[in-house]
Amino acid sequence: MSTEKNKLTTSWGAPVGDNQNSMTAGSRGPTLIQDVHLLEKLAHFNRERVPERVVHAKGAGAHGYFQVTHDVTPYTKASFLSEVGKRTPMFIRFSTVAGELGSADTVRDPRGFAVKFYTEEGNYDLVGNNTPVFFIRDAIKFPDFIHTQKRHPQTHLKNPNAVWDFWSLSPESLHQVTILMSDRGIPATLRHMHGFGSHTFKWVNAEGQSVWVKYHFKTEQGVQNLAPDVAAQIAGDNPDYHTEDLFNAIANGDFPAWKLYVQIMPTEDADTYRFDPFDVTKVWSQKDYPLIEVGRMVLDRNPDNYFAEVEQATFSPGSFVPGVEASPDKMLQGRLFAYSDAHRYRVGANHSQLPINRPTSEVLNHQRDGQMRADGNGGASMYYEPNSYGGPTESTDHKPAPFQVSGQADSVGYDHHDHYTQAGDLYRLLSEEERARLVDTIVGAMKPVEKDEIKLRQIGHFYKADPEYGQRVAEGLGLSVTQQ
C-alpha cells in the first residue's frame, strides 16, 4: 500500500489505482479507451526520444513481393490472399529493439520483423518479431519494460539491475527470456531467422465467419545463429554487419525468402484452450493447431535511399484490410494506438503520404491540413461527413465482424497465470549443449546484478519452469535455491 508521499500519480497529479493492468471489458477485453492513464502513459512514452524511434531505432529494409501458394479463402476474404498465384508488392523492415540508431547489429536482442503489404484494399502492416512470444502481455507495462532496456538516467549506461529486477517481478516474461538467452538470441544474419506476427489476430471470410489466427514466417535459408564471442567481435569490427549482409545478398541476386504459415483456431476454442489464446507470452501447440501454408515472401530489391524508405517507413499493427481484424490481445490492443501515435509524433500527421507509406489504392477521407501535407489537401471537395453534397461515405459491408464481450469494466489481468509450463517445455526441448549455453548466458547476464534478492527471485522462476534450470543458474551464480 502506497503512502501519501510515494503514491504513483498521473501527470495531472491524480493517484493511479492500477499500473499493472489496463482497463478492459471483462477479463479478456478488449481494452477500453476510457483508460486515460494507459493512453497518457503510452502517448508520453512515444515522445520520449527525438528524433529516432523510441524502440527499433536500428534497422534495415528491403522491397519484395508476397505470392499466395495455397488457398485460404475459407478463412479470410483479404483480397491479397484471394487466389493462388497472386502477387502483392511489400516492404520489410528488420530491427533490433533496445539499441540506438548507431548501435551494433549483433547484440542479444529480439529482432523486429515488420512487413507492409501494398494491397488493392489499402496497406496491411504485420508488425511482429523474430520470436513467437513477448516479455509482457499488457501494453500498460510496455513503457516501464523498455525503460529497463534503455540507459540509466544518471550513468547513461545499460543497467542489468533494472533488467533483471523487472523480469523477476514480471514472471510472464520467463518464456521470452528463455528464448532471448538461448542460441536464437543472436541471429547470424537477418536472412537466417524466422518471423512471427506474435499476436493472435482475427480472420473473417466472405460469409462473415471468423477464426483466430497466428502468423509464422519460416526462413528458407535455414536458422543460423552467432556464438556470443563471435557476435561481440563482429560488433566491434563491423557494427552494421546485418545491414550490410542483407544489402549485399540482394545486390548479388541471392534473394532471401520466407514461407508464410498460419495456425487457425476456431473462435469457440478460445474459451476452452488450456492457455489463453490471446496471451502474447504463450504459444499455441502446433499439435493442436498445425501450420497451414499460405504463401511465399521474397526480397528482391534494395532501397534507393535509406532515409526516404527505411527510416521514414511507418508501420502499425492497426493497419488492417478487410478480412483481417484485431483480437482482444491486451498487448495488441495497446499497440493499435501506440504505433500510429508514435508515427504522428516522429514523422508527422501526414506520414502515410510519403512514398514508402503511400497506399497503392486511392485514399478518400476527410482528414485535412497538418504539417508537411504533400498532396492537394482534398482540394475543394467536401471536408466533413455526413453531408448533403456528396463525397466518400462509409460502406457498411466493411464493418468489423462483431464479437461478444462480457464481465465488468475493470483493471484486471488474464485469468491464466501459468508462466512456467511453456518455458519449462522449451528448456527440456534443448539439447544438453544448448542448455549449457543458455545457462552460461543467463549467468553472465545476471552476475552484474547487485542485489541477491533480485537474483534469487529470478532463479525461483527458472526453478518453477524446471528444477534443473533453476539449480544450474543458481550454481553458476554461487547461490542456493534453498536460500529463497
Automatic annotation (TrEMBL):
SMART domains, A to Z: Catalase (SM01060)
Species this chain originates from: Paenibacillus endophyticus
Protein name as catalogued: Catalase
InterPro entries according to UniProt: Catalase (IPR018028), Catalase_3 (IPR040333), Catalase_AS (IPR024708), Catalase_clade1/3 (IPR024711), Catalase_core (IPR011614), Catalase_haem_BS (IPR002226), Catalase_immune_responsive (IPR010582), Catalase_sf (IPR020835)
Region (Disordered): 1-29, 353-384
Family in the record: Belongs to the catalase family.
E.C. numbers: 1.11.1.6
Biological-process GO terms, alphabetical: hydrogen peroxide catabolic process; response to hydrogen peroxide
Bias type Polar residues, positions: 8-25, 353-364
Names of required cofactors: heme
GO cellular component terms attached to this protein's record: cytoplasm
Domain Catalase core per the UniProt entry, residue ranges: 9-393
Binding locations of heme: Y339
